[in-house]
Amino acid sequence: MDLELVQTAVPLLLKGLSATLIITACGIFIGFPLALGLALARMSSSRIASATARAYSMVFRGTPLLVQIFIIYYGLGQLRVLRDHDLLWWFFGDGLRCAMLAMVLNTAAYTSEILRGGLMSISHGELEAARACGMSPWVRFRRIRFPLAIRQALPAYGNEITSIVKDSSLASTITVLEITGYAKRLMSETFAVIEVFTITGILYLAINFVVLMGMKLIEGRLSGHRAGARS
Amino acid sequence: MLWDAGWGLAILRGALVTAAVGILGMILGMALGFTLALIKWARVPILTPLVDAYAAVVRSIPGLLIVYLLFFGSSEFVAGVGAFFGYQDAFQNAFAFLAGVAAIGLIAAAYASEVFRGALASIHKGQIEAAFALALPRRRLYSRIIGPQMLRYALPGVSNIWQATIKDTSLVSVTGLAELMRVAYVGAGSTKQPLLFFVIAAVVFFAITLASQGLFELAERRLNRGVKAG
Amino acid sequence: MSRRNIMSLTCGVAIAMTATASAAADGMLKVGTEGEAPPFSMADANGNVTGFDVDVANAICAKLKVKCAFVLQTYDTLIPAIDRKRFDVIISGLGITPERQKKIAFSIPYASSPQYFIVAKNSPLAKITSLDAIKKALADKTVGVVTGTIYARFIAKNIPTANIKSYDSLNQLESDLEAKRIDAAFDDAASWTDFLPTPAGADFARVNVKVVPSDDMTTLSPGMAVGLRLTDTALKQKIDDALCAIIKSGDMKAMSGKWFHDDYSLPCN
Q1: Given phi > 0 = left and psi -120 to 50 = alpha, else beta, which region is A191?
Q2: Residue C65: left if φ>0, alpha if ψ -120 to 50, beta else—which one?
């Protein structure tokens, strides 16, 4: 491999790191609360809420993220209504913001399924005990259901975060200059396709490695007291 | 309006290519994934860490990069994929198609190796010991004892992999292969009607995933026939 | 085993639907082109291409007495793919640059058009008349180009502070230009000749600054040529001869007139 190429490639690709991290952060910090809301809506007694949440989940998990990104960026970009409205167009006119929106909507659907699994896994006995202690629904949620669901869902959510990092590469298809965007630009200038994409792959590997280490740390702290009994 | 220019037919053809890439990629992925799972399950000395590394790497890098790497990379590997399906000289003609299948298959295999390993581990050791005690030939052991039970345990995981795989086929559009996503993209560009084309593409994908889900649920019910709950 | 046969059948059907015809040593020339850059190459629903590049390719094939088979890919993947034998030649408005010459061989240039910036008709940028002025004006604006083109390199080198947006195809660039996501776009006159008369292009105009290769010899090209593998010297000779014949007979000028309404053909000496 050409050392000179590596020396020029790495700083250029790292310029895209901030966009990758912004998209990932949006997916986590906006997607997660949205997912929680969806999971609760799905489990609620209101039929409308439950059906809407179910439909949302099916649509966003049943179609590729690439299509969702194109619909938001190119599809909505076609609509005059959006183009003429200053604030809306500030949002939809920008590739990065459209990518952030698509990521949030997409990961919320997958995460809501993970959280729903976590919430449903709480044993009935624990909930009964909470009710017997006189806890209100909000306190029950805050102190029993949410923490237990998170602990159960953590491994699966760790996988979801690595998916978010990987999926951020799709933003390059709508002109966003995240890591893959710079990789494509570099490739079209140097024609060194294999080298450029191998370096890019290593970069993503490194990011996901950090994510997995982070998840292991959090898992350890949340489940410390169970260390001995883990199966 | 859009049927006149032939786009309707093009979308249909694109959907068929998408399905073909998905199905063939899935077959490749399952075959490779099962082999890798066996290696992990049997804890073969040098190969097991290699398999773990493979799975870890493929699951950590974007599918888009894998598609690019295979499309621009080794022609030998893609020719090998063609040969696997019985086509020795095809790769010159349909490189984009085979590279897409290879990429999809490699990704699916990485996830399948874990699903199948988990399924194999769920089979009660006692059953395998009993089979040895009865001197059942290896082939019988796999086809009568391990196979069916592993299939049952693996089915939910395989269903998830299929859902991911059929959506990953949209990534193959960057190679120029005329699958659904690419047709929608070119059509959107030519007719300047992106919303229409991409929504149609989304609907077709949704139909495929919905139908697949139904089929898998049917299969699950069939495989679980006669199995006591709990 | 019948299962293997079924898999082979599926594979075969899919390959039949997606494959381009196989290139025997004689009889077929596989041409790589973009397919999304009017008026150079446009693909319809069935994958049939038309356009200036297609006509040039067919003319060359006729002279070489072979059939042309077209392989469509995004512009920035054409050069990396030629080594992998996806196709034998690239005919896609390809410019000659020193970097590209390290990777591929070029035929003689057969056409050349100047480059222009496109902006909205009512934008203050539309009134600029000098290259320096437009460079200054765009220093903090968004400029759209197609990834991998010499125009992309030109902007990157000459207006480095601009927010450069690269698109995979000319169609996409035009879409976003229309959607006002970019302040200006930069490409060759031939592409704009096709865009401006369309209803979408009605709100746009060329900035009256003609950019020619001498404005930046390091990034711009003296003309567009056919791209070949470095090892295909015999083929290059044949194509050079064919192009010369086409130019001398006036066919190149006619094709240029048909698609660009102007004569962008280059002489053959």
Answers
A1: left
A2: left
Q: Number of Cβ pairs closer than 8 Å across A and B?
A: 104
Using the CB atoms, write b or e for C41-73: b if 16+ within 10 Å: bbbbbebebebbbbbbbbbbbebbebebbbbbb
Name the β-bridge partners of C120.
Answer: C204
Q: Which domains does chain B have, with CATH numbers?
A: 19-177 (1.10.3720.10)
Q: Is the pLDDT of residue C219 over 90?
A: no
Can you list the domains of chain C with their CATH numbers? 7-111+222-260 (3.40.190.10), 115-215 (3.40.190.10)
Give yes or no for a contact between C7 and B20, defined as CB atoms under 8 angstroms apart. no
CB contact under 8 A, B7 and C45: yes
Three-class DSSP category at C44? coil
If you measure CA to CA, which chain B residue comes closest to A170? B64
Contact A66 B181 (CB under 8 A): yes
Tell which CATH classification among 1.10.3720.10, 3.40.640.10, 2.10.109.10, 3.30.70.1070 matches the domain A3-222. 1.10.3720.10
Distance CA B115, CA B37 (A): 8
Which residue intervals of chain C are DSSP H helices?
2-18, 52-64, 78-82, 98-103, 131-137, 150-158, 170-178, 189-195, 233-248, 251-260
pLDDT tens for each residue of B47-89? 899 999 999 999 999 999 999 888 887 676 777 777 777 665 5
* Mean pLDDT for back-to-back runs of 10 residues, chain B (230 residues): 71 92 94 91 88 92 92 74 66 75 94 89 83 83 80 87 94 88 87 90 94 89 72
Query: Which DSSP state fits C159?
Result: S
CB of A201 within 8 Å of any CB in chain B? yes
Q: Do B60 and A193 touch (CB under 8 A)?
A: no
Query: Which contiguous run of DSSP H or E holds residue B129?
Result: helix B125-133
What is the distance between the alpha carbons of residues C151 and A148, in angstroms, rounded to a whole number?
57
Kindly tell me if the per-residue pLDDT of A146 is higher than 70: yes
Find the residue in C nearest to B178 (Cα): C18
Task: Count CB pairs under 8 A between chains A and C.
Answer: 43
Query: Is the pLDDT reported for residue C1 higher than 50?
Result: no
In a mutational test of the C interface, the residue from B28, B95, B104 whose CB has the highest number of chain C CBs within 10 Å is: B95
Q: Pick the closest to residue B202 from B68, B18, B22 (CA basis).
A: B18
Query: In this structure, are strands C104-106 and C224-229 parallel, antiparallel, or unpaired?
Result: antiparallel
